[in-house]
TrEMBL record:
It is found in: Membrane. GO terms for molecular function: ATP binding; calcium ion binding; protein serine/threonine kinase activity. It comes from Oryza brachyantha. It is an enzyme of class 2 (transferase). This is non-specific serine/threonine protein kinase.
Length: 412
């Protein structure tokens, strides 16, 4: 962030302080809310409005790339408005997964968020083109309200991305201009070598003439979908936050001890062979393909092995997503009256007065159609939607990394 030039559309790093355990980053405060929340609050939402928003997003991508930075985690939640004024600048945040690059560099880490991952990320060989893909996914969502590649878990989302193919059949696509659809197609080109660069995207007729794009409303259905998509993300994030706070230190220490038992050569790292042997000894029936995936997902420094912190972090995330005790605690947090159900009023208390979005969440999660969310339905939502590749690298690291590092150092 210090490397990036000062820019009105990039959140600024004010200061950094370090103590014995942590580095504290003091960031610019963005009080204007998330991108989708602003869109749905405006009422009239048209292709022209989407084009003007999107031009800013691609400007940021171009600025990053021209300064040798790949953001690697572009998604709507990472764009905030600086303040509540109508002309507030839109700012990209969260450079936690960003990386420096030089022309020709290829990267292999599987990072980012499932819906926005380019196919070459899943194939583990990629460059700056991945940011253009992610921005293309955002554009698709901006124009119709749902992601182009869909699935009820990460594996199915990945399969959808690798299969490719873009649906322009459903509403409002028949009413969207040919130029807009052409840009979506060329940004979501599965071949990174023929995909548009950020500079070429800015030169595309749809963005060059953004002020003359159709000003006809994309329809209330699109606004409702955007609102629901945003609210569901907030619901899951809040639930994950409750789960994290319930995790006891003793649970953390158990995985630290397991790491040291599995680290046969005592070099402070687990190889694939040590992982396979250790999980077999611990009675975990994990196929080799899944152990390789676990290693790939948790290996944040890309050295092909897991250090103690990486092992503990991913183990905790996988554990808490399958541990009924932690999920039950998260469910109880929402079930304020102890009725055994999360009801509309309780969701409203947590997510604010987004009436349509809350009803959509209930509709999506409530499989027996009784108008409320039971524990079984909540559990299904959390386990099916757990983005563990992403969460193990971001959410869990934020909550447990400093503690696990300390425990790793203290253990023999």
């Amino acid at each position: 962030m210090r490397h990036m030039p000062s820019h009105p559309n990039i959140v600024s790093l004010r200061a950094a302080y370090e103590d014995e355990d942590n580095v504290h980053l003091v960031m610019e405060l963005c009080e204007g809310g998330e991108l989708f929340d602003r869109i749905v609050a405006r009422g009239h939402y048209s292709e022209r409005a989407a084009a003007n928003i999107f031009r800013t997003i691609v400007d940021v991508v171009q600025l990053c790339h021209s300064n040798g930075v790949i953001h690697r985690d572009l998604k709507p939640e990472n764009f905030l408005f600086a303040n509540k004024s109508e002309d507030s600048p839109l700012k990209v945040i969260d450079f936690g997964l960003s990386v420096f690059f030089k022309p020709g560099d290829r990267f292999t880490e599987v990072v980012g968020s499932a819906y926005y991952m380019a196919p070459e990320v899943l194939r583990r060989s990629y460059g700056p083109e991945v940011d253009v893909w992610s921005a293309g996914v955002i554009l698709y969502i901006l124009l119709c309200g749902v992601p182009p590649f869909w699935g009820d878990n990460d594996e199915k989302i990945a399969q959808s991305i690798l299969r490719g193919g873009i649906d322009f059949g459903r509403e409002p696509w028949p009413r969207v201009s040919a130029n807009a659809k052409d840009l979506v197609r060329r940004m979501l080109d599965p071949n990174p070598s023929t995909r548009l660069t950020a500079k070429q995207v800015l030169e595309h007729p749809w963005l060059k003439n953004a002020d003359t794009a159709p000003n006809v409303s994309l329809g209330d259905a699109v606004r409702a979908r955007l609102q629901q998509f945003s609210a569901m993300n907030k619901f899951k994030k809040k639930a994950l936050g409750v789960v994290a706070r319930k995790m006891p230190v003793e649970e953390l220490d158990k995985y630290v001890q397991m790491f040291h038992l599995m680290d046969k050569d005592k070099n402070g790292h687990l190889s694939l062979e040590e992982l396979m042997d250790g999980l077999h000894i611990n009675g975990e029936p994990v196929p080799e393909s899944e152990i390789r995936m676990l290693l790939d997902a948790a290996d944040t420094d890309g050295n092909g092995m897991l250090d103690c912190d990486e092992f503990v972090t991913v183990s905790l995330h996988l554990k808490k997503m399958t541990n009924d005790e932690y999920l039950a605690a998260a469910f109880d947090h929402f079930d304020k009256d102890g009725s055994g159900f999360i009801e509309v009023e309780e969701l409203r208390e947590e997510l604010g007065p987004n009436e349509q979005a809350i009803l959509e969440i209930i509709r999506d999660v409530d499989t027996d159609n009784d108008g409320r969310i039971s524990y079984q339905e909540f559990e299904l939502m959390m386990k099916a939607g757990a983005d563990w590749r992403n969460g193990s690298r971001r959410f869990s690291r934020a909550n447990f990394s400093s503690l696990s590092r300390r425990l790793c150092k203290e253990s023999p």
